[in-house]
Every structure is written in structure tokens, then in C-alpha cells.
Amino acid sequence: MTFTEQLAAAWQKNDSQLCVGLDPDPAKFPAHLKGRDDAIFEFCKTIVDATADLVCSFKPQIAYFAARRAEDQLEALIAHIHERHPGIPVILDAKRGDIGSTAEQYAVEAFERFKADAVTVNPYMGRDSVEPYLAFPDKGVILLCRTSNAGGSDLQFLDVGGEKLYERVARLAAEQWNTTGQIGLVVGATFPAEIARVRAIVGEMPLLVPGIGAQGGDIEATVKAGRTAAGTGLMINSSRAILYAGKGEDYASAARLAARETRDAINAHR
């Protein structure tokens, strides 16, 4: 199955548009995991197993693994998700962006080494920096478009020929670059008006929406702005609010409760 086929199946099977971000910070782990060589894998695996039936995707952030020399644990985690929870797509949040020959290596890293189903990519070096990822026709390529951070407006709101830069990115992605049908866009929950604008430009294209939970994005506004006519089309990401909902040995059950509440809040506005 392609990335978009997996995503559509997960939307339906789990009745969910929740994406759980896996941003493991050992300083926030429960005491019983601290000091373990495999603490990052164990923490994330337990969260995954507790929430897999409530999500449409998982999104490990590569920096949280690489900074602690835990890339092997990231490989093991993605393998675990594919083996134990088949059909739930894994988005490697790497935000890669470089010239074609280097992008080819980043694509191999994401899709052959880590075996992710999709990867986040910075498109601001243009089409030839995106094309190497599209050489994997069944894999998702999720381009940064309108990001959730306040500083995103420094560049993304610049006028380029009568439209804002983020609108140009959305238009290029939808009309020229999406040769495999597997491109998606990142649009932050902190800007619901821009979510609606992107949806109007790109039609049914899936949107990865960070910024709810700890970043303060409004779920109702996000869903109403970004849903498709079928009531889907979104991967609404929550990381810290779910990962660290509990601080003790019951952290997995606390994460499950937080994930269920978030999924249900999303569904209430579909």
C-alpha cells in the first residue's frame, strides 16, 4: 500500500485523525526507565502500544534520537510499529532540505535505513530538492508549507507575484510537483485561516497539522478549517500533551487517556 492508502485506511479503521508525535526526552521519563540503555525505545514503544488503535499515524522526530546517539532505537521503534501495528503509517519528522545529490542520500536514509512510510521535507530549495524523495513512488513526502512557529511569517508571508510564499508552495505542490500522488503539506494549527486557505488550494491533499496541545492550537478551529468534504484529510499532531500526560509507571495508561480524549475532541468537530 502507498502512504496515502495506508493513511486513508487508518482514518477509517481507527476513526481517527490524531497523529502522535514521538519526541522522547529522557529528562521527562518516569524514574523506573532512567539509566536504561534502551530507555528511549522502551518509552516510545510503550506509548505506541497504548495508543495505536486511537491514531492515524505516528511521527518520530529524528533529532530526539540522533542527539542521544539513539538512531538504532529509532530503527527498532519503526520496525516495532510495522510489525505490531501494521497499517499505521510512520512519518519520519526530519525536515530535510538540500540539493538533489544530497537529497538522494536523505531519501535513502528515511526510506531504506529507517523504513519510514513518509518524511517531512523543506521545499525552499525548489523542485529538484524534492524530486529525489518522489523516486520512491509509494512513500509520502510532506512539505513544510505554513509552519506553526511564530517566526514562520518572516518568510512564509512574503508576497511572491501576488500571493504569499506559503500559498505558492501549496500551489506548486498540488499542481506541478505531486507526480506520485503522495505529497502532503505541513500547516500549523496556530493559523486556522491559513489552513483553510491551503485546503482551498490543494483540494484533498493530506495535511499534517502540528500545534495543538502544548503549542496552544484550537482543535475545533483546526478541524473546521482543514477537513475535506468527507470529513478527513488531516493528521493532527500532538506530542508532549500525550507523551508526558503521566509521570509515573502508569504513564502509558495516562497517554492512552490523553490520546482518546484528543481523538474524540477532533471527531466532535468533523
From TrEMBL:
Its EC number is 4.1.1.23. The keyword Lyase applies. Keywords: Decarboxylase, Lyase, Pyrimidine biosynthesis. The keyword Lyase applies. InterPro entries: Aldolase_TIM, OMPdecase_AS, OMPdecase_type-2, OMPdeCOase_dom, RibuloseP-bd_barrel. It is an enzyme of class 4 (lyase). One of its GO terms (molecular function) is orotidine-5'-phosphate decarboxylase activity. CDD domains: OMP_decarboxylase_like. PANTHER family: OROTIDINE 5'-PHOSPHATE DECARBOXYLASE (PTHR43375:SF1). Gene3D superfamilies: Aldolase class I (3.20.20.70). The active site is at K95 (proton donor). Pathway: Pyrimidine metabolism; UMP biosynthesis via de novo pathway; UMP from orotate: step 2/2. This is Orotidine 5'-phosphate decarboxylase. It comes from Azonexus hydrophilus. Residues 17-255 form the Orotidine 5'-phosphate decarboxylase domain.
